């Protein structure tokens, strides 16, 4: 051991360590999943880099991860022969958190353990989860391709700091050695470890091995002796990438566990769709709809995307070209046979295969959501609450699927008059009145402002339903969504919505008379308001309120409208 230094953890790491140890106690065995998934990532990275430089394999192309326990030393070790880490890598990756938005994330924690442990689940605890069960962690690693004296040892008790030193390490890759806390000795039980690994890691694409002791020859009376067996490392998972297997061979449990590792989520997914596509473009996609929005869904600096594999080789994370941004909540992967192994983000940019895969993905996700909406409305309500506002970016981004996207929308409306967003456009159309041609809606800052708007009076009087929109994106979304199912949308605060086309002759006459009667008042009002208004008119829209301010059909400026409303009341 040489060149030993001590470093302090980044503040956020200290916070994470503190929080994790206290809030993830009931979920403690996840450390195995996290460490095995890191080992598998390290194998993926090695294979990817070796495409250009096969010397990195150091004559050993069989990547695997091994798990062993030592009852005397009180340790459990997870050992891989993946890419390994250099000294700089170790300091960076095992001393800081690289995710953008981390500061904000910790700023959002409430101190309420139940809530925080949910949040931390979506944040992803990764390597640091070791400290849920360990009071001391040693990492011994050497980067593939470096000489054996360039190994590095990292050590920490998970408090404020870690030490780092140079070591000799013959085999490339990383050993993570957890010294178990006194009360966590159950993880020394091989059967327990084995069963956890089977549950969490069956889908991992490389073998996860445990050592099997040999047995001596056994004597059998009146028969042949049972021969001795040799001890050796034995794979305890299937070791084939889940998505390459036949759908009918994969259990829901396996799909769910796989989701947890690709999405870094503690929760189960809401739905998934797994497809092998043959023909012009050949690829496999496995796409998941999560139950909960990740903490960084609205962070513009964060790339959202799926994993890209080419011919089963992992190429990149967050490949954003395979789904449009309004579907950025989708997690999962694509494995293509048509892209080159040396594909880069630039090549993906305008590639025919990318385009075809993307279109296929969009189709499948929209289909999955449509089915969920039809067949499991409760799940769909969960989805809508978490991701509805993202989906509302759809009409602006994806013109060709506008209609399908809009079919998925759910709004509050005057039908139930509650804030619950559960009215689809098809529901609305089904309830349209005889003679009603348009889909009426109102946008406002809050649900109650929408619901109590005087613009609704005439609609309520005539029993015509109005969609009540109060999400921030609604107004912008509606500027890109002008019709649905051949019906125009109409904002009720825009001029020309007095519904007179639906009046009978008698009412029309009465209205004409009222207009005449108020002629001179209108003139006076116009003179008094002068330049402040474009027009003053008698309206038949109101039943209770004396007056209302409206904008012209084509004026989108409701900010102005709001100012005027505020000033006018
Ligand atoms: P994540 O896996 O989400 O990046 P982790 O906390 O699990 O977060 O790991 C942090 C980083 O440490 C990884 O991104 C990787 O660079 C490095 N790392 C962790 N474990 C290994 C390993 N077994 N081999 C190589 N690098 C590793
Ligand atoms: Mg990880």
Automatic annotation (TrEMBL):
Pfam families reported in the protein's UniProt record: HATPase_c_3, HSP90
Signal recorded as keyword: no
All residue ranges annotated as the Histidine kinase/HSP90-like ATPase domain in the record: 27-184
Record's subcellular location: Cytoplasm
InterPro entries named among the record's database cross-references: HATPase_C_sf, HATPase_dom, Heat_shock_protein_90_CS, HSP90_C, Hsp90_fam, Hsp90_N, Ribosomal_Su5_D2-typ_SF
Region: A, residue numbers: 1-345
Principal cellular location given in the protein's record: cytoplasm
Complex and partners: Homodimer.
Organism of this sequence: Catenovulum adriaticum
Keyword set, alphabetical order: ATP-binding, Chaperone, Cytoplasm, Nucleotide-binding, Stress response
Entry annotated with the keyword Cell wall biogenesis/degradation: no
Role played: Molecular chaperone. Has ATPase activity.
Protein name: Chaperone protein HtpG
Family as reported in the entry's similarity comment: Belongs to the heat shock protein 90 family.
């Amino acid at each position: 051991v040489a060149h030993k230094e001590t470093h302090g953890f980044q503040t956020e790491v200290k916070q994470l360590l503190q929080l994790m140890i206290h809030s993830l106690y009931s979920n403690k065995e996840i450390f195995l999943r996290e460490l095995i998934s890191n080992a598998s990532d390290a194998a993926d990275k090695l294979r990817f880099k070796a495409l250009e430089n096969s010397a990195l394999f150091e004559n050993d192309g069989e990547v695997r991860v091994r798990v062993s326990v030592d009852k005397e030393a009180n340790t459990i070790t997870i050992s891989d022969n993946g890419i390994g880490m250099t000294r700089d890598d170790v300091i960076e990756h095992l001393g800081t958190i690289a995710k953008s938005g981390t500061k904000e994330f910790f700023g959002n924690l409430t101190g309420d353990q139940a809530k925080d442990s949910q949040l931390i689940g979506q944040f992803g605890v990764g390597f640091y989860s070791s400290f849920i069960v360990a009071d001391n962690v040693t990492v011994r690693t050497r980067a593939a391709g470096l000489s054996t004296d360039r190994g590095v040892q990292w050590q920490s008790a998970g408090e404020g700091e870690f030490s780092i030193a140079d070591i000799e390490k013959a085999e490339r890759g990383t050993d993570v050695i957890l010294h178990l806390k006194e009360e966590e000795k159950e993880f020394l039980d091989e059967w327990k470890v084995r069963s956890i690994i089977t549950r969490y890691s069956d889908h991992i694409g490389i073998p996860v091995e445990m050592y099997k002791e040999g047995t001596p020859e056994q004597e059998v009376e009146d028969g042949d002796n049972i021969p001795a067996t040799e001890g050796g490392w034995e794979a305890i998972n299937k070791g084939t990438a889940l998505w390459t297997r036949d759908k009918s061979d994969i259990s829901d449990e396996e799909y769910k566990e796989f989701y947890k590792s690709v999405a870094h989520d503690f929760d189960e997914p809401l739905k998934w769709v797994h497809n092998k596509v043959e023909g012009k473009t050949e690829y496999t996609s496995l796409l998941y709809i999560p139950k909960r929005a990740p903490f960084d869904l609205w962070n513009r600096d964060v790339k959202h995307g799926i994993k890209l594999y080419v011919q089963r080789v992992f190429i990149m994370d967050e490949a954003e070209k395979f789904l449009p941004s309004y579907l950025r909540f989708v997690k999962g992967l694509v494995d293509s046979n048509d892209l080159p192994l040396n594909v880069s983000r630039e090549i993906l940019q305008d590639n025919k295969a990318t385009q075809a895969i993307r279109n296929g993905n969009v189709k499948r996700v929209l289909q999955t959501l449509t089915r969920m909406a039809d067949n499991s409305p409760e799940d769909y309500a969960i989805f809508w609450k978490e991701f509805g506002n993202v989906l509302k970016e759809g009409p602006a981004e994806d013109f060709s699927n506008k209609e399908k996207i809009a079919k998925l929308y759910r709004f509050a409306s005057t039908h139930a008059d509650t804030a619950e967003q559960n009215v689809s456009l098809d529901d609305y159309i089904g309830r349209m009145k005889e003679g009603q041609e348009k889909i009426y809606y109102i946008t406002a800052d809050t649900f109650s402002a929408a619901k109590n708007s005087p613009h609704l009076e005439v609609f309520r009087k005539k029993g015509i339903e109005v969609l009540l929109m109060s999400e921030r994106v609604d107004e912008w979304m509606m500027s890109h969504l002008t019709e649905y199912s051949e019906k125009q949308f109409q904002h009720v605060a825009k001029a020309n919505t007095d519904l007179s086309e639906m009046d009978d002759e008698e009412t029309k006459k009465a209205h004409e008379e009222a207009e005449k009667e108020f002629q001179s008042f209108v003139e006076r009002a116009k003179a008094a308001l002068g330049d402040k208004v474009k027009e003053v008119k008698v309206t038949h829209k109101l039943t209770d309120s004396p007056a209302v301010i409206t904008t012209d059909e084509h004026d989108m400026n409701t900010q102005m409208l709001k100012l005027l409303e505020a000033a006018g009341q």
